[in-house]
Amino acid sequence: MIRRTKTSSRGERRRSVRSLQKLALAVFVFAVLASACGGGQTETVDETPGAGVSVTMARANWDTGYFQAAVYRALLEELGYEVSDPAGNELGPDEFYPRLAEGELDFWPNGWFPLHDAKLAESQNGVDVGEMVTALGDSIPAGGLQGFLVDKATAEKYGIERLDDITASDELIALFDRNGNGLADLVGCNEGWGCNTTIDATIVANDWGTAIEQIAGEYSDLWAATVTRHQAGEPILAYTWAPSAFIIQLVPGEDVLWLSLLNPLPEQDDATPLPPSHCPGQPCQMGFSSADIRVVANSEFLDDNPSARRLFELVGFQLTDIAIQNFRMLQGENSEDDIRSHADEWIEENRGVMDAWLDEARRAGS
Fold this sequence. Notes:
Layout: H1 2-36, E1 54-55, E2 59-60, H2 66-78, E3 82-83, E4 90-91, H3 93-102, E5 107-113, H4 117-121, E6 123-124, E7 127-128, E8 133-151, H5 152-158, H6 163-167, H7 170-175, E9 184-187, H8 194-205, E10 212-215, H9 219-231, E11 237-242, H10 246-249, E12 256-259, E13 291-298, H11 299-304, H12 306-314, H13 319-330, H14 336-349, H15 351-364
Parallel strand pairs: 1-3, 2-4, 9-10
Antiparallel strand pairs: 5-13, 6-7, 8-11, 8-12, 8-13
Helix pairs in contact: 2-14, 12-15
């Protein structure tokens, strides 16, 4: 009996040793895993990954993009970046893209694609601009609508459905000829804007040079005069775009109609899904493909600032938010302080979404 007791004790000791060995191994593995995961502690995220970094941003010289620029500036500042006032670099695409490629600027939120594809293909010191800059994010995917408007009363009276109808009729050409040079006047875009180039190219491609001309100038002034003429009951023919307050002032389907084109430029031949009550010439070929509005940034800046890159990838807007803000500007709330206030209000109204974007941007920089 004593011998069996001793044998049993030795067996228990062996089992105890093996248990301790297994426990030690488990502790060792846990320690290794804990070390690999940061010691089991919560990951530390830098709240201000942009601290000490100066950002030189630009904005487009069309005021319907001021609001977006103010929002991006405010959100970058929440990440700690020191951001220049975009009003100090208010530019057209012709000047913006070369300066961005050179590194004089870091970004703007006003890229319209495919309208600006040609800008990326231009050469800068022997290198395509598109190799030095990056368009990213879905700020307003397929949200940029562009085309030609005619007042609804004139369209219904003369059966106008397409821009071709005007250019093929001497009577209608004379009706829209305000300066008396024998050409229908089409209110167009500022020189240097992509739409200005597209309109001129469309006129040439359709052999409309003896029928219609683009009236270029400061767009806001041209549009204000167009609204005044409409209010006076005069015929109007004008280019415009959305998102903007312009289609709140003259509402498609009520005040004006979108015109279709029989032969838009090959790169602009996508039909827009608008109803006949807004665009009677079906399919609605507006002469412009719907545009993706995106951030465009210097590629080196993005590589050096992953938090900014991630923010640019995440931020998005509703068309109605932009249209409402644009209308507030038209009503007189158009100072730089007003625009910054509009941006701050929108951020606070959407604080939950903003914080989610900012947190993800912070993690990208950690």
